[in-house]
Design a protein that fits this description.
Blueprint: E1 3-8, H1 12-24, E2 30-36, E3 40-42, H2 47-51, H3 57-60, E4 61-63, H4 64-67, E5 74-77, E6 80-84, E7 89-92, E8 97-99, E9 102-105, E10 110-111, H5 129-149, E11 156-160, H6 164-183, E12 192-196, H7 208-220, E13 223-226, E14 231-235, E15 238-241, E16 246-248, E17 251-254, E18 258-259, H8 262-265, E19 271-272, E20 275-277, E21 290-292, E22 297-298, H9 311-329, E23 343-347, E24 353-357, E25 363-365, H10 367-383, H11 386-390
Parallel strand pairs: 1-2, 1-9, 2-5, 9-21, 11-12, 11-17, 12-13, 20-22
Antiparallel strand pairs: 3-4, 6-7, 7-8, 10-18, 14-15, 15-16, 19-20, 23-24, 24-25
Helix pairs in contact: 1-9
The protein binds nicotinamide-adenine-dinucleotide (NAD).
Nicotinamide-adenine-dinucleotide (NAD) binds near residues 163, 231 and 310.
Length: about 400
């Protein structure tokens, strides 16, 4: 009898789980259903470009219908309400419910506000296509408003958090703001673009040399770095830093950290600090019919440290999960997760970037890093057949 595979989330982990499960199981062997909040697979590694108006929405939001055409995978657009891992059922907010033989939880991460007073209420985030659209519309509105009001808070842009998300966003804004200012008759010299980071340095995953390269490149384009200065409070338009100084701004984008998914953390499976724990085969350590892909899981490396929640890991986890579910259904041995790290690339705007190629010690600066980032995106799109959908 055909088994039911239910996949929650159509990000990197969920989509690749579905494609891999279908590649390993016939329609007679398994019915596969993917549930996702929106009808698109979002290329979230490129959202910073959309947030600055540097790429079109259709380049980063690929319709699932087109992506999965002919693959015999059911798509349900809906919001998960509850996950019953004992009864093996999932309920959606629209009242429908789904039973499963194997469940894949691939619901991603959530923004961590670390309990900082006023932060959530007074900031924008960059985790989805709609967030990116909101940021771009907001930035344009503030510049337009400044052209009339000359209120400095409208000309002040603050990015909170100097990890990859914050730095990639500030790089795009540094490139795009001058043109937006010109269009609205505003002098770019009136704009303040801050990146506020709690730690002594931005992008600690890179060598000091690459970090300096990033800082110099961005400072040349008008970014002001405030490091060793955590944001401690936000009240309306006033952002307070640890040393007591304040910045008045009508635009704070918070990229200061991520945490596990609340639905996953509260569904009754075993978790570690809000992220689900998994065995080698990426099954929940408490519920083996539940598999975990991407940021909602925590995978520990050989030194006992958790791997960072990245797209490349989510993609690889999804591929293994699809194959492992097929193996489990057929009574065969499941494989262990052996991640391959191709490296880390950070774009610093349209034409600049830095990168460290995994395990080689090779570092990239400038155009080679930008090109490598583009190539890595193209490789992913080709892999999921996304170039085909973009051609529509
Ligand atoms: P992050 O957790 O990596 O970085 C958040 C930064 O915010 C940290 O540097 C932290 O010190 C800082 N911060 C925390 N509290 C603060 C405060 N109160 N005030 C100011 N700064 C504060 O988050 P991220 O950048 O969103 O990345 C999340 C994950 O996604 C990471 O694993 C990252 O590797 C991955 N990612 C990868 C890419 C890429 O490969 N190009 C791009 C984006 C994200």
């Amino acid at each position: 009898m055909s088994k039911e595979i239910l996949i929650l989330g159509a990000g990197y982990g969920g989509l690749l789980s579905a494609l891999s499960a279908r590649a390993n199981l016939t329609v007679d062997e398994a019915n596969i259903t993917v549930v996702n909040r929106v009808g698109t697979h979002q290329i979230i590694t490129e959202l910073h470009r959309l947030a600055a108006g540097n790429v079109s929405e259709k380049a980063v939001a690929l319709p699932l219908e087109k992506l999965l055409k002919g693959k015999q995978i059911n798509i349900t657009v809906g919001e998960v309400q509850s996950i019953d891992v004992e009864g093996k059922k999932v309920a959606l907010t629209n009242g429908s419910s789904y039973r499963y033989d194997a469940l894949v939880l691939a619901l991603g991460s959530e923004t961590n506000y670390f309990g900082i007073p006023g932060l959530q209420e007074n900031s924008l985030i960059l985790k989805s296509v709609s967030d990116a659209n909101r940021i771009f519309a907001h930035v344009k509105d503030r510049i337009k408003a400044y052209a009339q009001s000359k209120n400095k808070a409208d000309a002040t842009f603050v990015i909170g958090g100097g990890g990859l998300t914050g730095v990639e966003l500030v790089g795009e804004l540094a490139d795009e703001l001058p043109a937006i200012c010109r269009q609205n008759g505003v002098d770019f010299a009136d704009i303040s673009l801050y990146l506020v980071e709690a730690m002594p340095t931005i992008l600690p995953m890179f060598s000091p040399d690459l970090i300096q390269r990033a800082v110099t490149s961005l400072e040349k384009r008008g970014v002001e770095f405030l490091t060793s200065l955590p944001i401690t409070e936000v009240k309306g338009q006033t952002v307070t830093l640890k040393d007591g100084r304040t910045i008045d701004t009508n635009t704070l984008v918070w990229t200061g950290g991520v945490q596990g998914n609340t639905l996953v953390a509260n569904c009754g499976i075993e978790v570690n600090r809000g992220r689900a724990t998994v065995n080698e085969a990426l099954q929940s350590t408490s519920h083996p019919d539940v598999y975990l892909a991407g940021d909602c899981a925590v995978v520990f490396g050989p030194e006992g440290r958790p791997y960072p929640p990245t797209a490349q890991l989510a993609w690889q986890m999804g591929e293994l999960i699809g194959a492992n579910i097929a193996a489990a259904f057929k009574g065969m041995k499941q494989d262990g997760f052996q991640p391959v790290f191709s490296g880390t690339l950070a774009s610093l705007g349209r034409k600049d970037g830095i990168g460290a190629v995994g395990g080689t010690g090779i570092e990239l600066r400038g155009l080679p890093a930008s090109l490598m980032k583009k190539a890595s995106n193209a490789r992913y799109l080709t892999h999921i057949n996304g170039l085909f959908t973009l051609a529509y």
